[in-house]
Amino acid sequence: MNTLPHYPRIEWLVDASAARRPDHLALVYHDRRWTYAVLRAEMNRRAALLIESGLLPGEIVATRLPRTDDMVLNALACFRADLPFLFLSSKLSQAEATSLLERGGVTRMLTPEGDPDPALPDVPALPQALPGAPGANATREALRRSAAGSPDAIAYFKTSSGTTGGIPKLARLTHVNATCHAMHPATWETPDDVYFSPDAGVFGPLAMVIIFGLGATLILSDTLAPARMEAEMAAGGVTVLYTVPPLVHLLAAQATPPPSDLRLRALRTISAPLAPAVAETVARRYGVAVVQQYASAEGGDITRTVTGTPEGSIGKPFPDVTIRIMNDDNADVPEGDIGELIVQSPTLMRDYADDPAATARALRDGWLYTGDLARRDADGFYFLVGRTGLRINVGGYKVHPEEVEAILLSHPGVREVVVLGETDMKRGEVVRAVMVSKGVPPSARELRRYCRDRLASYKVPRHWEFRDALPRSSLGKVLRHLL
Questions:
Q1: How far apart are CA 176 and CA 296, in angstroms?
Q2: Partners of 300 in the beta sheet?
Q3: pTM to 2 decimals?
Q4: pLDDT tens digits for 175-199?
Q5: Which of 47, 140, 203, 312 could form a disulfide with 77 if both were Cys (CB 3.0 to 4.6 A apart)?
Q6: Distance separating alpha carbons of residues 375 and 219, to the nearest angstrom
Q7: C-alpha distances in angstroms, 185 versus 126, 190, 273?
Q8: Residue 15, Cα to own-chain centre: how many angstroms?
Q9: Contact assessment for residue 79 and residue 51, using Cβ atoms and an 8 Å cutoff
Q10: Contact status, residue 160 vs residue 298, Cβ threshold 8 Å
C-alpha cells in the first residue's frame, strides 16, 4: 500500500490488492467466487457498461435490492466510473425508499431485470447483473475517470436518523471518509483473514475498504440463523466475523457447542453498543477477541476497543480522529465529567443530502456534534452514557436510559431491554422498560426489587412491559419511536 496516496479512492485499493495477490480469493457469495484479478476485471466491465448507458461523472446510481455480490460489484463499478452510489435496505417500505431516493437526486436505478423501480418509476433502470460486453472506448473512459478522480469526491450515501434523531437523512460520504481507516488496519488483521458478513445490513464501503484494502477474503451470507452461521463459517475457514449486536445476542444464546472445526479468532461488531455480559459470553464460546467499534453514518469509525479496554468502554479513537467532550455551553468538561461527544476526523461526512439545516446543526466549525453523551477516564478510554435527546427528566433528576438498561440486562430473566421516558402528571416523566425475556418473564415485583438494590429510586422503572421482540431497523438498531 505504500504506493498509494495517504488517502486513496476506494477502487484504487482493489487495484493495489489485485496487483499484489491477483489469484487470492476476494469475494464469495453462494457458489460464486471472485479472485482479486477477476474482481478488478468485473468492476471495470460494469463501470464501462454504466458509462455506455449515458451516465456522466457525479450522477447518482441507486439500488434497494438484497445484499449480494452484485451489490458489492456494482458499488465498486460506480466508484470506478465516478458515480456516487446509494444502497438502500430492501426492508424499507416503498414510501420510505421514495423519500430517500428523491432527496438523494438519483438518476439511475439498478433492479433485478432492469424494470423501473416502483419507488422511483420515472427514473431509468438497468439490470443489476449489468450483462454484456462494453466497447473499448467505454472501458478506457472508466479507467480515465478513476485515474483523474479525486479522493475527496462524493463516493456513496448512508442513511441515518441524524445526530439528533428525527426523519431518516442521507449522509454524503467521500472516498477519503472510507479509505482513511484502510491505512490503519487493526494489529490483529492480516491479508490471510477470511471475513464473514451475515445478512444484517451492516456491510458497506467501510467494511469493503478494510477487507479489500488488506487483500483479504470476504464471504457474504444470507443467513440469520446462528447454527447455520457457525456451520457456514466453519466450512469457509472464516477467521473474523463482521456483524451487529442483535446477531451476537443470538449466537450467545445458543445451547449447543460450536462446530469443532471453527477457526474463528476475532468477532468485530458495529452500529450499536454490545452488552458486556453478551460480549463475555461469545468471547468464551469461541475463544476469540471481541472488537467493538463506535461509529456513525456521519462520522465513520470513531473509536475501537483495544487490549486492556475497560468493561463498558468504547475504547480509544482511531488514528487521525480527535475527540472532545463538551458541556451545554460548548466548553470542554473536566476529565470524568459527562458531556456531548464531538469529533474531528477525515471520516466526517460532507453533508446531509438536500438538508442544509440539519447539516448546520451536526457540523460546526469542522466538528461533528454526535448527540452522544460520554465521559473519558484518566487513561484516555471513552464511555458512552446516553443520547442528548434520550435523557429522562424525573422530577428534575436526569436519568440516562443506558444505565438502567445495563442493570436490567444483568438480570438472568431479561434478554433485551429498552428504557424510555413516559409522561407523568406529577413528575414530568417516569421510567418505562420494554423487554424481551429469557423463558418465563420475571414479575414486575421481582424486577423492581432487583433495580432498587442497584439504582437510585427515581431511576427504577415504574412501568414494565414484555414483548416477543423489539422492533429494529435493517442495521439492528431498536426503533424507539415504535415503542
A1: 15
A2: 296
A3: 0.81
A4: 999 998 776 677 778 999 999 998 6
A5: 47
A6: 37
A7: 36, 8, 21
A8: 25
A9: no
A10: yes
